[in-house]
Amino acid sequence: MTDVSPFSPGNSLIVAVTATSAGRTLPAGSGTNLYVQNIGANDVWIAVGTAAVIAIAATAAGTSASMPLANGGKVMLTIDTSVTTLAAIAATAASLYVTRGQGRA
């Protein structure tokens, strides 16, 4: 059985998401987990990486896209120390809470 430590949250930010992919610098801290929650009414596509990362929205069935996060959805991501940026895109305006921390929710 894997030992799972509870999530210890660090710094957070709110990301305003539009129809153009935009990257936001991740909250400061040393945690290797990101808790991302879609608090908007619209689906969002997210990607993490360096400053050049771009999120791609799915436009039709069978098209390649970034990771979807449905409205009201939540996801815990494990990130590498080289990851500095979260990019997001939506068909219409949405918002995300992004919290950096350590452990699992």
Comma- or semicolon-separated keywords:
globular; 8 strands; four-stranded antiparallel β-sheet; mainly beta; 105 residues; Jelly Rolls
Report on the structure:
The strands form 2 sheets. A 4-stranded antiparallel beta sheet has the order 1-8-3-6, with no helix packed on it. The protein contains no helices and 8 strands. The chain has one domain: Jelly Rolls. It is globular and about 40 Å long. The protein has strands spanning 8-17, 22-25, 33-38, 44-49, 67-69, 74-78, 85-90, 94-102. It has 105 residues and is an all-beta fold.
Strand order of the largest sheet: 1-8-3-6
What is the count of distinct domains? 1
CATH class: Mainly Beta
Percent strand equals: over 45%
Helix content: under 10%
Contiguous runs where pLDDT drops below 50 for at least 5 residues: none
Overall average pLDDT: 92
Multimeric status of the protein: single chain
Under the CATH scheme, which architecture would be assigned?
A: Sandwich
C-alpha Rg, in Å? 14 Å
Shape: globular
Number of helices: 0
Classification by helices and strands: mainly beta
Main sheet specs: 4 strands, antiparallel
* DSSP summary, beta strand count: 8
- What is the CA–CA distance across the termini? 17 Å
